[in-house]
Amino acid sequence: MLLCSLPPSPSQSQSTSPRSQRARRGKGFLDEEEEDDGCGESGADVVCLQEVEANGEVLRVRKWSVPHADNQPQQIAAMCGLPHFTFSATLTATFSKDSLRGGEVLQHSGDGRYGLCILSRFPIIRSRQLSFNRAEGSPGETLFMDQEEQPRGALAVLLDMQEEDAEPMWVVNTHLSHRIASKEQRRQAAEVLHWMDELRSEDLPESDRATFLLAADLNSPSFCPYSSYSVIAADSRWKDLWQEGGGPCCCSATFPANWCGGFFGTRIDHIFGLCLEDGPIPMCETARVVRETPADELASDHCAVFVQMDFVVAPDVCSKEEVTVHQFTFGTSAPIQLPDFSQMHKSPRQEVKSLRQAGHGEELSLAPVQEVERSAPDRPPLPRSPPPAIHRPPPPSGAQPPFVSPRNASPRTASPRLPGNWHPHMPQQGFYGQVPMQPPPQMYGEPMICTCLSIVPQLGLETSWLDPLVALAMGSMLGKLCVGCFGACFALNLLWATLFMRFVGLLPMEKRRRESICLVVVQAAWRISLFFCPWVSISHSDDTAAEWRGMQQKMEGVTEQPLMVLGNHASFLDVIVATCCMPASVLIKCRTYMDAHLFAMPLISTVCRSVGHFPVYFNSAEAGVFKVDKEKNEKVDQEVDKHLHSGGWLCFYPEGQCNRTPDQLMPFRYGGMKKALEFDARLISVVCHGNEKVWPRKMKMGGLPGSIRVSCKQLAPDGVKALVKQLRESKDISAEDKKGEDFELLARHLQRVMQTQYDDMNGRAKED
User: Fold this and answer.
1) What residue ranges carry the coiled-coil annotation (predicted)?
2) Angle formed by the axes of helices 72-80 and 32-39, to 10°?
């Protein structure tokens, strides 16, 4: 929820409060008294709602909702006393269950709608709608909203503020992707910025002078790089009103709404104001999270953010006339002459802040002083010193700009500044001011050092032979800090997960059910750990969701042919990433081959035994040497066969060991191929790129900043026997390959296909 209040004009007694909140039926939002407390008593003049439902008959639109036939925008507008509103449906659908995946399915229907809504006390001159481009294409007949890219968009209205000197205001409401720090989320944020620029350029009499306010559920905290917030904050024209108003650091969480009074959670709801060179300046006085009453937390799963602000026009202080600022101290005043701002590189507001600092925090005013002629006094005036003048010459040409704090930087200046959530590895191309935006560092080496080299001049250090040493030290400290935080997150989450799995092991239930519950717990622990490590970014290819969906549909009702998941192995992080990326309906049936020494490690051994993974006993721990204990592994193979015959699925790494050259996949071992042919399994691949840079093979703990890409592809959707038959009949396969056994032909083919997957991701990573 987002609240924004503007001070009233003399002709208007109400406050103007653009507010954004989320309507969630089934979570307390149906109570009219609570809802009226949330909107009506806030005095909001503009309300922005996300995920609002408007049904023509009794329907259930989403799994978070309940069946109803309410027109929520109309009802909420009546409760809040706001006569003007507009609604934009991002999707028309109804909810149903899918037995295989155990999740939601949205079937397209015109009777159930949900989307964005803006309510206003001021008349709406016009409205505009935007539908985001979907990388996965248009939704099909069904849509799994917890795993696929949802249809989302933005809604904008132009408000008539009903004052002679008040500019019309564009209010933009949007709700971006829930996939934090994803390419999808960043793309949607960029689309919103481009769309608002188009609104400003419309051939309308109001567009050239209208102010802009962006109220959004970005699903991203302000400190997270590679996120929608970082994209918007990188545009210096947009000012975060929470930071401008000095919003508190404590109790500032807006999501979840009912977590210990805001101590836990994060603030993912934001309000931005547009600040232009020749336009009004958004000024914010206060910012806070609204949670005074229980209704504030029950009306939605998001709490409101209240911002008191106004758009003001900067005084014309660049004229030739002198402007004086009076400093009041103990009832006396001494004029201070301001310099000619037209010759400076700083804005008047920055100079006023500098004067305030020079005056030891004493209050200053920018109001021009009108000199009044006075008659000569009876006695001569006492001698007084001339007024102190503040002169700040412009910096010499070619000099490096000083580091400007985000709190003191003005978006209206031409001098470079850093955004409020500046991060040395923000996903930007080109230059932002004088700071080159480098790609994410891959390891302790050159990329991170180059990034630190670009920061050295901004810290006021002169370029010299010491810069590489300083950059090396900074890169090393940054990497160690990231690794330490990464290890702490994983250890804490692994600790509570193992305790929970110990408890599940005591419950009187079937072993397979206990293992499935433990797998879901492990997946939750890994995902939480990665969520609190935003410097590790995980993105999926555009066809990943479609590949999983297609394979699951083909596996529906099939019990004789198990599913086997193959992956490339370059880091210990491979297992964690694959676990996080798998759909839960697939994960609960999968068991994995794991190195036997993991079953002897603290905490990790509890995980491996609780979820039912299968150990692989090696005779040699030397890198590049593949020798296994056949006697012990025969017993493991019997357990694997029993698992597959009972309807279970298998996940393994056909390379057999951790690859020392990740860019080139190692030859696939024949044991997994024989197992796949024995059961005529259906195959799907999970290929990861970048794991070895986040968690290098030789490091005991990973967590270095980097980007991980995941791609999935159906390798044998109809079974490996059908695939081998197709390969032997294909003219693209050489005669030499066809001479070998079926498992040899299958191994070489799968290696080529997965190598192509990896090369495609590697090429896209270099382009980005």
Assistant:
1) none
2) 60
* pLDDT over threshold 50, residue 370: no
Q: What is the mean pLDDT of residues 57-77?
A: 82
For domain 23-50+72-88+119-312, which architecture applies?
A: 4-Layer Sandwich (3.60)
Determine the pLDDT at residue 97: 62
Residue 236 has pLDDT above 90, yes or no: no
Average pLDDT of the residues of the chain: 72
Range 438-465 average pLDDT: 42
CATH topology for the 504-767 domain: Glycerol-3-phosphate (1)-acyltransferase (3.40.1130)
The CA distance from 649 to 643, in Å, is: 8
CA dist 412 → 274, 278, 350, 431, 628 (Å): 10, 9, 10, 18, 67
Question: CA-to-CA distance for 457 and 479, rounded, in angstroms?
Answer: 21
3-state SS, 207-266, equals CCCCEEEEEEECCCCCCCCCCHHHHHHCCCCEEEHHHHCCCCCCCCCCECCCCHHHCCCE
Instruction: For strands 46-55 and 104-120, give the pairing.
Output: antiparallel
Residue 337 pairs with which residues in a beta bridge? Answer: 324, 389
Tokens (6 digits) for 547: 């590949």
Is the preceding peptide bond at 256 cis, omega within 30 degrees of 0? yes
Strands 563-567 and 706-716: unpaired
Q: How confident is the model at residue 16 (pLDDT cuts 50, 70, 90)?
A: very low
189 pLDDT band (50/70/90 cuts)? very high
Distance CA 83, CA 120 (A): 7
Question: 429 with 694: CB under 8 angstroms?
Answer: no
Q: Note the Cα 676 to chain centre separation in Å.
A: 39
Banded model confidence at residue 539, pLDDT cuts 50, 70, 90: confident
> Which backbone phi and psi does 709 adopt, to 5 degrees?
-115, 140
Alpha-carbon gap, residue 664 to 573, rounded angstroms: 18
| 500-516 pLDDT, tens digit each | 988 988 888 888 888 98
690: left (phi over 0), alpha (psi -120 to 50) or beta: left
Q: Which residue has the tokens 């001339």?
A: 386
DSSP summary character for residue 346: S
Cα–Cα distance, 337 to 741 (Å, whole number): 91
The residues, ordered by sequence, that sit 6+ positions from 565 with a Cβ below 8 Å of its Cβ are 578, 582, 586, 590, 649, 650, 651, 652, 683, 684, 685, 686
Dist CA 684 CA 566 (whole Å): 6
**Which contacts qualify for 724-731: CB closer than 8 Å, 24 or more apart?**
724/677
Q: Which two tokens stand for residue 41?
A: 């008593």
Using CA atoms, how far apart are residues 237 and 246, in angstroms rounded to an integer? 19
Domain ranges for the chain: 23-50+72-88+119-312, 504-767
State the alpha helices, DSSP H only, in 532-680.
544-555, 573-581, 584-587, 604-611, 630-645, 670-679
